[in-house]
Design goal:
The chain has one domain: RutC-like (60s Ribosomal Protein L30, Chain: A, 2-Layer Sandwich). 36% of the residues lie in helices and 25% in strands. It contains four helices and six strands, in the order αβββαβαβαβ. The radius of gyration is 14 Å and the shape is globular. The two termini are 20 Å apart.
Length: 151
């Protein structure tokens, strides 16, 4: 099964239609064999602070949704997700209430999707920070990727 087929299967399982045409100033930048993605939030899918406005489960789903957006941007840029060599780094912010500390477990929503699509190639170092305010009506999270591609 190709990475594109695994992405489509995951989108079906999550009942998420990842965007085919994504709007962004620059959604992906390539330097040599390294791709940098713009940060993506989940838009209006989940808005507010995890731990007060939103549950842990809402945050996890928001991060899965963001994974689908990120992979959609990469697929649109490369044309084929099997051109991805490996995910090199994940960085992001999660909007949380003051007493919420399970940011890493919320961000597992993204890394679980990356693992389902790429296997071990989807495992990467990651940094997740808590935030009080994020764009687009205070989206629940904003995440970005750095990855290498095959020539």
């Amino acid at each position: 099964m190709t990475a594109d087929e695994r992405l489509a299967k995951k989108a079906y399982e999550l009942d998420i239609d990842y965007p085919e045409n994504l709007r962004a100033l620059v959604s992906v930048r390539r330097v040599g064999n390294i791709l940098f993605t713009s940060g993506s939030g989940c838009g209006t899918f989940r808005q507010g602070l995890i731990g007060s406005d939103l549950t842990f489960e809402d945050g996890y789903l928001a991060c899965q949704h963001i994974a689908m957006i990120q992979l959609g941007m990469i697929k649109q840029y490369l044309g084929d997700l099997d051109k991805v060599d490996q995910i090199l780094r994940v960085y992001g912010h999660v909007a949380v209430a003051d007493d919420f500390h399970d940011l890493d477990k919320v961000a597992d929503g993204l890394t679980d999707v990356l693992g389902a699509v790429f296997g071990d190639r989807g495992r990467a170092p990651r940094t997740i920070l808590g935030s009080r305010n994020l764009p687009v009506g205070n989206t629940a999270a904003e995440l970005e990727l750095i990855l290498s591609v095959k020539d």
